[in-house]
């Protein structure tokens, strides 16, 4: 075609391609974006203007209040004096001095000041230990270190003799050894029974004297710290993290129980899950603090924090069981049948085929439950533990900071937001990493 | 199993209980049963021993003893001479009240935020993302405490309204936001059903005149009781004013309200709605028969509004606005800060979760559905109602149920603001006064369990009506 045209010399036939024109101004750049995204119709115009007004109202109050805040003062009255000198009486600025002065308390509660390095070190160890669990690119051998970490962390935070946690950990090693070495010789079921019974006997009768004997030989002692002294975000993190780590396995077991064909196991799991889920956590916490002593042998009395951790774990595990059940139900039946066809027994088929897929489906729900659990740790304030909100009350009760509200709330809220938002982002990362479909 | 040959006449060996899959599950279950029974009997025997050691028994008799404490907010008649059982009932009703209020507002907020988060408007969708993430990632308790502090610290005192340059009432001098709570107008009737009965020589004491929602936020009763000139919006006041009117013959009619009025109004409203639905059903039948849909909107509006207005006129309804008297507001409805803070915090917090559910539900509907509906010639509104919403609801309803359940259970955080819900009365003061932790907590747990089961069964019935009908 072009040859024909090039040979002809008609005036109205163009011989070269026209250069592309720039799009009109209304279709490019910022103008187009603003037009499409903010002012595309009368409703959008109203919404945009409304939002702009709202943002302006909030920011015009919040930004000067926060940015001009006073960081260096010993009490609220002093804060107000400084404010009056700087900005004139009655101006509305934050008094961040309360955070500057009391942040160690908000973080650690009444933990002895000279021992702050211990919880800090414990949390560093925790993050090192959790890294191989969260990110599979790290070497797998590091997982052995992760298993030892809880005992070291316990020792660092509560103090006492190192041999106590070591003696307890030895029980787990004992169970694992029986399972691994005696299992092939005596059969699976007896091995499982033995690996449960022998460590229990060991913990009840051997562990205590053993720890005592060892510590009398080599006393590796740290100063004891009472649970009552632990508070603030440290308390929230201890309860939250232990609850998260303990409730996941329990929740998976409960979910399997609920799916089970065995009548009694099935009904017991359902009853447990529904009763736990039907009653608010706060009622369970009051049960833990008021009633647990009724159910235990006379004279037993154990740490309130431990009771709370147990209750929070049971509570979260019921929710996780439901989430995991959703994942199990979402798997096609063919997966179960294929596992049976391969001749795998129940536990092998669950471990190798069903659970990896079901848990992958359940990840968003599980992480949401964890976020909920972490937020729910604030409820322990009602049974007398000093979580961040409880500490904010006690700070407000002191004469220096009587009447201070917003600064503490903002600080506590921001800290919780960072933790929970971070967990949510990690769940998105995990979902993306585990996605196997083509896209 | 059918292809199996008959097993040889083999004697039963004990090892089969472990190694034979036919018997193994039975073995496991029997072992589990025995362990469970042992654990339970251990717990019960411990409890019995502990109770005996403390000299307590297991007895619910305390529910019929006088409670001896006051509750500042109640939906039914209650005073400190009432029984612990009645105090529990007051608390239970308060829990249900805040749960219903919270679920309604949370649904509204959640739907709006969820739809707006999908909006093309960049600014609005980002704003809604901030709302959702902000509320989801901060503990509910902090929000409750924060809103309560906001309500009590950042609002003026009632007497500040007296000053000329002080704060003024909102919405045409009818709503006052103070640090003691929010005062809003309520409806009162000059020809109240309850009032007519009171005008008779012998007013019935036992009549549940205050079972309605109005005038029962005890605070107004306390505040009006002190001042001499009562506007008489509470039932107690109505009783006394009725007596007064009877004594003085043809006195001035004091407007009042009773549960019967509200029952009548609600009844008329529901009858109107039922009529409107009937009209719409008839219209659909006609449309299916003839292809033309008669206009129904005016008839429906008339069916609902005209009887309602008629009843209001017959009862002589008028707005009772709160008026500043003494150091506080008189008249109207007093919504306490505790209720408002709890209600707002629960609604905003749960609304953020519902927004995500709604967004997910709408995103789950394939865009092809909208395009197919347009290709069939349906208008956007009809497309939404007949094509998109019915499908989105299937995805939305089940998680919505669990959010309602969460809100109801979270209402037990009322403890943070001193709202007298079931946990504060039955599980709080009653336990402290009688020392019956075991019975009190048992009843409290049972109440929440039953409430959860009732809500989830109702919502499941609704879910069954909207879910995909498969043949």
From TrEMBL, chain A:
Topology with regard to the membrane? Multi-pass membrane protein
Q: MF terms per GO, please?
A: transmembrane transporter activity
Regions crossing the membrane: 41-59, 115-135, 163-181, 188-210, 230-256, 268-292, 304-324, 358-384, 404-426
- Which sequence ranges form a coiled-coil region, renumbered to this chain? none
The protein's UniProt keywords, in alphabetical order, are: Cell membrane, Membrane, Transmembrane, Transmembrane helix, Transport
Domain of life here?
Bacteria
Give the matching InterPro entries. AA_ABC_transptr_permease_3TM, ArtM/GltK/GlnP/TcyL/YhdX-like, MetI-like, MetI-like_sf
Q: Which Pfam families match?
A: BPD_transp_1 (PF00528)
User: What GO biological process terms are annotated to this protein in UniProt?
Assistant: amino acid transport
Query: What residues does the ABC transmembrane type-1 domain cover?
Result: 233-427
Name any GO cellular component annotation.
ATP-binding cassette (ABC) transporter complex
Q: Which NCBIfam families match?
A: HEQRo_perm_3TM (TIGR01726)
What protein family is recorded?
Belongs to the binding-protein-dependent transport system permease family. HisMQ subfamily.
Name of this protein: Glutamate transport membrane-spanning protein
Source organism per UniProt: Salipiger mucosus DSM 16094
UniProtKB/TrEMBL annotation, chain B:
The alphabetical list of record keywords is: Amino-acid transport, Cell membrane, Membrane, Transmembrane, Transmembrane helix, Transport
What are the Low complexity biased-composition ranges? 209-249
Q: Where in the cell is it found?
A: Cell inner membrane; Cell membrane
Task: Name the segments for region: Disordered.
Answer: 197-252
TM stretches of this protein: 23-44, 87-116, 128-151, 262-280, 301-319, 339-358, 441-462
Please give, as recorded in its UniProt entry, the membrane topology of this protein: Multi-pass membrane protein
Q: Which GO terms describe its cellular component?
A: ATP-binding cassette (ABC) transporter complex
Record carries keyword Coiled coil: no
Q: Which GO terms describe its molecular function?
A: transmembrane transporter activity
Q: Which parts of the sequence belong to the ABC transmembrane type-1 domain? A: 92-459
Q: Which residues form a coiled coil?
A: none
Q: Does the keyword NADP apply?
A: no
Q: Principal place where this protein is found?
A: membrane
> Which Pfam families does the entry mention?
BPD_transp_1 (PF00528)
**PROSITE patterns tied to this protein:** ABC_TM1
Mention one GO biological process in which this protein takes part, according to its record: amino acid transport
Q: What family is this?
A: Belongs to the binding-protein-dependent transport system permease family. HisMQ subfamily.
**Database matches in PANTHER family:** AMINO-ACID ABC TRANSPORTER PERMEASE PROTEIN YHDX-RELATED, MEMBRANE COMPONENT OF AMINO ACID ABC TRANSPORTER
Q: Which named protein is this?
A: Glutamate/glutamine/aspartate/asparagine transport system permease protein bztB
